[in-house]
Specification:
Blueprint: H1 30-37, E1 55-61, H2 66-70, H3 77-81, H4 86-89, E2 94-95, H5 102-111, H6 115-118, E3 124-126, E4 133-135, H7 145-148, H8 154-160, E5 164-169, H9 177-182, E6 187-190, H10 194-206, E7 211-217, H11 219-227, H12 232-249, E8 256-261, E9 267-268, E10 276-278, H13 283-286, E11 289-295, E12 298-303, H14 308-319, E13 323-327, H15 328-334, H16 343-346, E14 352-356, E15 361-363, H17 369-372, E16 376-377, H18 383-386, E17 387-388, E18 391-394
Parallel strand pairs: 1-7, 1-8, 5-6, 5-7, 10-15
Antiparallel strand pairs: 2-17, 3-4, 8-18, 9-16, 11-12, 12-14, 13-14
Helix pairs in contact: 10-12, 11-12
């Protein structure tokens, strides 16, 4: 029955948000499953569909979600043809984790932990020790990396167990704090071109009887943010990375498994007032808010002390049909950030968390001018953002 026009809008029920598949099919489960199959102690294979291999390579393509591959068979013929191999031949995706954003996802990949444990639960989050917003991608303001994320990486533990471990990426990433807390362990091999990375990844994969190699490409995401995934620039990058994936697959040494995945998908957001709600220009949303964190489709909202309930009520009233809007306690209970929240992470989560359901974003034109001008966005729990491939090639 249609809702009578005189009734107030009904906010989305927090329990209807599609929580990531932590523990059985998320990015955090990938490396633990692979190294468990290589005999590294302390790990359990939590993605049951995967078959062990002596040599494992993970190629992470930033921003290339499952839905984008499905929608572009002509631009990505190699990747599209591999869709039936995903998740151990089930033809299904895995999930990124919440929020579906690079810093959070890379930390989940490298540590094998959900965001509530590794402690990078968003693009920007409040540092409870200083009260300032911490940008976890750019690592600003400076925060001691080992204190912010103290858990060892899977790469480091695999390397200590005798697995030949390497990361092959852009040279600029070698000494970044995010690499240190999420991807360190074994050898880092910086290569500028995508072709060089594929070739070196194959070489390092063959270098050990048991090996674990990670390689990464970022420009699909960059072009999506700047021009959108409905642009020629983005399609050109998709065609290029499809060729890179084929190049790596054709060089796999014996007893190898290549897994092609991503940190999140992406959605284009129109430039109109309905689709882009400007926090900096909206007095209702600003009322009682001390800090706005996260990003357009996954916001952490930090209230002035004592105003938490009022902020929750207003945000739910204003946005509740288009966003899942919940309190910190509600999202923890619902498992948005994983089944466990480390004590040091608790205060990094917003007093209110807003995750987009509709094709809308909450921008901040004054405080986030660059991010507010992006065409392609991500962060929330919708399939286009959450579903990432786990394409497989074996030799």
């Amino acid at each position: 029955m249609a809702q009578p026009i005189w009734q107030d809008p009904v906010p989305l029920d927090v329990r209807t948000a599609p929580v990531p598949e932590y523990g059985v099919g998320s990015l955090a489960d990938l490396l633990p499953t692979l190294v468990a199959g290589q005999g590294v102690p302390g790990f359990t294979a939590t993605i049951p569909e995967l078959t062990p291999a002596d040599r494992n390579c993970v190629f992470l393509i930033d921003g290339l979600g499952w839905e984008q591959i499905r929608a572009h068979p002509d631009e990505a013929p190699f990747l599209h043809a591999l869709l039936p191999t995903s998740r151990g031949g089930t033809g299904r995706p895995i999930t990124a984790g919440f929020p579906a954003t690079t810093a959070t996802s890379l930390a989940s990949v490298g540590t094998g932990l959900p965001p509530g444990e590794h402690g990078l639960p968003g693009y920007t989050v409040r540092d409870p020790g200083t009260g300032e917003l911490m940008n976890q991608l750019r690592w600003y303001p400076w925060t001691p990396p080992g204190e912010w994320q103290p858990h060892p990486t899977v790469f480091a533990l695999a390397d200590a167990a005798g697995v030949a471990t390497a990361q092959v990426s852009a040279p600029a990433f070698e000494r970044t704090p995010l690499t240190q807390v999420a991807l360190s362990g074994g050898s880092f091999l910086g290569r500028l071109s995508g072709e060089e990375r594929m070739d070196v990844a194959a070489e390092r994969l063959a270098a050990g009887d048991r090996s674990l190699v990670y390689t990464y490409y970022s420009e699909v995401d960059a072009k999506g943010h700047r021009f959108g995934i409905d642009s020629d620039a983005w399609r050109g990058q998709l065609m290029y990375v499809d060729g890179l994936a084929r190049r790596l697959a054709e060089q796999l040494p014996a007893r190898s498994a290549l897994y092609i995945t991503a940190d999140h998908g992406m959605i284009d957001i129109p430039f109109d007032e309905r689709s882009r709600i400007d926090f900096d220009e909206d007095w209702e949303l600003r009322a009682g808010v001390a800090l706005l964190g996260g990003e357009g489709r996954a916001r952490h909202v930090y209230a002035v002390p004592g105003a938490e309930n009022d902020v929750l009520a207003v945000w739910r009233d204003v946005l509740g049909e288009e966003f899942w809007v919940a309190s910190r306690d509600e999202v923890i209970e619902a498992g948005w950030f994983g089944p466990k929240i480390d004590e040091r992470v608790h205060g990094r989560i917003g007093d209110v968390v807003a995750a987009a359901h509709a094709d809308v974003v909450i921008t901040a034109s004054v405080n986030e001018p660059h991010e507010s001008e992006m065409v392609g966005m991500h962060g929330s729990m919708t399939p286009v953002e959450q579903y990432v491939p786990l394409l497989e090639v074996r030799s």
